[in-house]
Structures are given as C-alpha cells and as structure tokens.
Write a structure and sequence with these properties.
It contains one helix and four strands. It is elongated and about 55 Å long. 14% of the residues lie in helices and 14% in strands. The protein is of the alpha+beta class and 57 residues long. It has one domain. The strands form two sheets. The protein has a two-stranded antiparallel ribbon. The chain binds zinc ion (ZN) (2 copies). One zinc ion binds next to loops.
C-alpha cells in the first residue's frame, strides 16, 4: 500500500487521462484527445453527425 497508481477503467493499464464527461480514468488507448473524453463517451457523441461541420451557409 502507499503507491497510488490509477488504472484504466477499461483495460487496466496505467491511466494517464481523465474523461471530462464521465470522470473515468483511462489510458491513452481509451482516450479521445479531440473530445477530451473516453472512447465510450466519444463514440456515443459521435453517433450524432454534427451539422456544423457542413460548410454551407
Ligand atoms: Zn485502456
Ligand atoms: Zn467517459
């Protein structure tokens, strides 16, 4: 005891990021840097296509 090592909530590797949406601690493989969230939250959000990405005005 004494060592505080946070492990990825998905795969158990060393967590280096925290999801800003669900607060889970995740490793690089389970973190979406463009969204600042874990891959689970990221994929959930990406289910909706973003109409703002359309260049028409
Ligand atoms: Zn992981
Ligand atoms: Zn998340």
């Amino acid at each position: 005891m004494g060592d505080v090592v946070v492990l990825c909530d998905y795969c158990g590797k060393i967590a280096v990021h925290t999801c800003k949406l669900c607060g889970k601690r995740v490793c690089a493989a389970h973190y979406d840097d463009s969204n600042g969230s874990c891959t689970a939250c990221s994929s959930g959000r990406q289910a909706k296509t973003n109409p703002k990405s359309n260049g028409r005005s």
